[in-house]
Amino acid sequence: IAKERGGGCFTCYRQEMNLADESSFLLENDLRDALNKGQLTLHYQPQIDAVSGKISSVEALCRWEHPLLGMVAPDRFIPIAEASGLIVPIGDWVLETACKQAKVWLDEGKHIHRIAVNVSAYQFNKHDFLNNVKRVLRETKLPPKHLEIELTESIIMSDAEENIGKLLKLKRLGIELAVDDFGTGYSSLAYLKQLPISTLKIDRSFISNIGDDTTEGAIVSAILTLAQKLKLNVVAEGVETSEQFDFLRKNQCGLIQGFLFSPARPKEEIQQFIGKQFKNDWDTCINKNGNK
Ligand code: C2E
Ligand code: MG
Ligand code: MG
Ligand code: MG
Asked: How far, in Å, from the CA of 6 to the mean position of ligand 4?
C-alpha cells in the first residue's frame, strides 16, 4: 500500500497496520461473547454426487452474525479464533451442532452419507481432541461413519510422521477423514498412501481454471487418477460453471461442491433438498443466480 502511494509514506503504512491490529483486537473481544450470545450459526453446503445428481454429503461452515458489522467471513474470524485459543470452545460447538443436526436429519429419514466438519490446527493439536470427538459422538448418538473431519493438507503434513498415529486413533472411532485444500500444500505422495484418509478435496484454485488444455486441468485429472488408484473419494471444491462440472464428470470426479449447485445455506433451506435430484430441482435456482 505504501508503495502505491509513492515514497515517504511509511507512516501511512504503519498506521494502517495498527488499524488492522486494532480491529483484530476489537473483533477478538466481540468473538469472546459471540458463542454465548448466539451469534454463531452453521450453514451447510451440499456435495453433489456427480452421477446421481443427489446431495451425498454436506459441509458445515461457520457463520458469525456480528451485531454491528453484519456477517463476518470465517476467513476473517477463524484466524483470530485460532490465535486467541477461542477456536477450542468454538470448534467444540461447531462439532456438536453439526453432529446433532446430522442425527436429526438421519432420524427424519433424510439420508446423508456424511457431515463434514472443519478442524483447525490448534484444535487438532490439543491433547484432548480425540476425547472430545468421542464425547460428541456419544452425546449426539450420531453413528460415527456419518462424520467426516476435514483437516488441511498443511496441518497433516506439518508433522506427518507423528500425525499418522493421531489420525489412526481418530479413524478407529469409525469416522472418516478428509484432506481439505488438497494441492495447496506439499503432500508427500508416499505419506498419502499411509494416511488413513478417505477423501481428497481438490482446492478451489485448481478448479477455477480447469479445461482440456490448461495446466490445472492436467493436475486435476492426475489427482483424479491417483485417487482412483488409492480408492479415495474426491470432492471438487468451488465448482461454479457447467464447463467445470462437465470436465470433472468426464474425468470421473465423484463429488461436486460449489456455487453451481448451491452456496452454504441455513439448515432450513438445505434440508428440503436432501435426497432429491439436485440437478432438476435446482435448475431454476441455478438460472436465477445466473451461474449457468
Ligand atoms: P474450506 O473448508 O475450504 O471451505 C470452502 C469455502 O469455499 C467456503 O468458504 C465456501 O463457502 C467456499 N466456496 C464453496 N463453493 C464455492 C464456489 O463455488 N466459489 C467460491 N468463490 N467459493 C466457494 P467459507 O464458508 O467462507 O469458509 C472459508 C474457510 O473458513 C473454510 O474453507 C475453512 O477453512 C474455514 N472455516 C469455515 N467454517 C469453519 C469452522 O467451523 N471451523 C474451522 N476450523 N474453520 C472453518
Ligand atoms: Mg473445508
Ligand atoms: Mg477447502
Ligand atoms: Mg479453505
From this structure: 34
pLDDT value for 179: 95
Q: Which three cell numbers stand for residue 190?
A: 508416499
The CA radius of gyration of the chain, in Å to the nearest whole number, is 20
Residue with the smallest CA separation from ligand 1 atom 20 is 238
Q: For 44-63, give the DSSP string.
A: EEEEEETTT-BEEEEEEEEE
Q: How many residues are given for the chain?
A: 292
The three state secondary structure string of 212-231 is CCCHHHHHHHHHHHHHHHCC
Beta 199-202 vs 233-237: how paired, if at all? parallel
C-alpha of residue 237 to centroid of ligand 3, in Å: 6
Q: Which residues contact 291 (CB under 8 A, 6 or more apart)?
A: 240, 241, 259, 260
Q: Is this complex scored with an ipTM above 0.95?
A: yes
CB 114 within 8 A of CB 176: yes
- Residue in the block written with cell 452425546: 139
- Among 24-28, 35-39, 50-54, 212-216, whose mean pLDDT is lowest? 24-28
Cell readout for 43 is: 450453514
Please identify every residue whose CB atom is under 5 Å from ligand 4, which is an ion: 181
74 Cα nearest atom in ligand 1: 30
Top mutation candidate among 58, 61, 243 for ligand 1, by most atoms within 8 Å of CB: 61
